[in-house]
Amino acid sequence: MSGVGVRRNRNDLLAGLDWAVELDERWVVLGPNGAGKTTLLRLAAAELHPTVGTVDLLGERIGKVSVFELRPRIGFTSGAFANRVPGEELVRDVVVSAGYAVVGRWREEYDTIDTDRALELLAAMGVTYLADRTFGTLSEGERKRVLIARALMTDPEMLLLDEPAAGLDLGGREDLVARLSALALDPDAPATVLVTHHVEEIPPGFTHALLLRDGRAVVAGLIEDVLTAENLSKTFDQDLLLERSGDRFFARRR
Ligand SMILES: Nc1ncnc2c1ncn2[C@@H]1O[C@H](COP(=O)(O)OP(=O)(O)OP(=O)(O)O)[C@@H](O)[C@H]1O
User: Fold this and answer.
1) Does domain 2-253 have CATH number 3.40.50.300?
2) Cα diameter, the chain
3) N- or C-end of the chain: fewer Cβ atoms within 10 A?
4) Could you give the CA distance from residue 94 to residue 134 in angstroms, rounded to a whole number?
5) ipTM score of the complex?
6) For the residues 107-112, what does the mean pLDDT come to?
7) pLDDT digits over 3-23, tens only?
8) Cα(82) to centroid of ligand 1, in Å?
9) Is 205 a residue whose pLDDT tops 90?
10) Which of 147, 164, 179, 159 is nearest to 81 (CA)?
11) pTM of this prediction?
12) Mapping DSSP to helix (H, G, I), strand (E, B) and coil, where does residue 86 land?
């Protein structure tokens, strides 16, 4: 993204943003409510055009390429998408239908190769046992994991996760962080961008961080350089202490 801004009703949702994500990088985007994180992710998902500046995704410039060609190359999960999945849809179909770029079952039969891949991805997220349940009967944590499996179904070149741990209990969060860490450490995994409010949710293996406040980047770069008490305090407008324990981070007010 170069010189990117998004304006709505005379408000800058994002402004002056220069940001580059390479294919082998795993980024976390941190910032308070309303900082512009979801707006940023929607730009990266080719769901939104910038008001000013240029966005290049996977070698294509937004505005010059059909977003319908680009979107299958990008895996995206968000709460907004979760709300669009029909509750009566079978979990295995929620995952497999990503390969056909649809939500909701639209074919009587899917190819065995696709069904096998969907089951493999559900297994990687630890939720094989849910394959024959309907999506509407799942808990929040189960839904999140199923949607991450769906996001990976098309073998995307870029994976975008909007607050994947929101609404999870402690065990669910820790399980998800471990699974996302395994994904981050897999050299074959796609470039990944994860949006969160909490440093506790940063999976080990993530390499870079972008801190956002009021639609602007406070700082961006390697996690070791960017994640400091000073930068975090600036971002969240509080005097914060940041602790590191092993490969995890913890923050609280000073
Ligand atoms: N169409 C719009 N018109 C005016 N303001 C908008 C519009 N859409 C979003 N906003 C505002 O833009 C800001 C950024 O929104 P965004 O959803 O990107 O933030 P966020 O960092 O993801 O927040 P949260 O952490 O609460 O999910 C918010 O203050 C929001 O109210």
Assistant:
1) yes
2) 58
3) C
4) 9
5) 0.94
6) 64
7) 999 999 999 999 999 999 999
8) 18
9) yes
10) 147
11) 0.91
12) coil
The DSSP line for 60-81 is: EEBTTB-HHHHGGGEEEE-HHH
Average pLDDT over residues 41-45: 95
> pLDDT (tens digit, 9 = 90+) per residue, 113-152?
888 899 999 998 989 999 999 999 998 889 999 999 999 9
Sign of CA dihedral 248, 219, 163, 205: negative
In the block, tokens 């000013």 appear at: 52
Task: Report the nearest-CA residue for atom 29 of ligand 1.
Answer: 34
Which residue, by CA, sits nearest to atom 26 of ligand 1? 33
Looking up tokens 């992710």 gives: 41
For tokens 């769906």, the residue is 150
Output the ligand 1 site: residues, CB below 6 A. Answer: 8-9, 11, 13, 31, 33-39, 197
Is the pLDDT at 166 greater than 60? The verdict is: yes
**40 Cα: distance to centroid of ligand 1 (angstroms):** 10
Cα 254–chain centre separation? 30
Q: What is the CA radius of gyration of the chain?
A: 18
Extents of the domains making up the chain: 2-253
Asked if pLDDT for residue 60 goes beyond 70, the answer is: yes
Beta bridge partners of 5: 52
Ligand 1 atom nearest to CA at 36? 18
Tens digit of pLDDT for each residue in 221-253?
999 999 999 999 999 999 999 999 999 999 999
Three-state secondary structure call for residue 185: helix
Q: Which atom of ligand 1 is nearest to the CA of 40?
A: 18
Ligand 1 nearest atom to the CA of residue 41, by list position: 18
The CA distances from residue 234 to 50, 98, 195, 238, in Å, are 26, 39, 18, 7
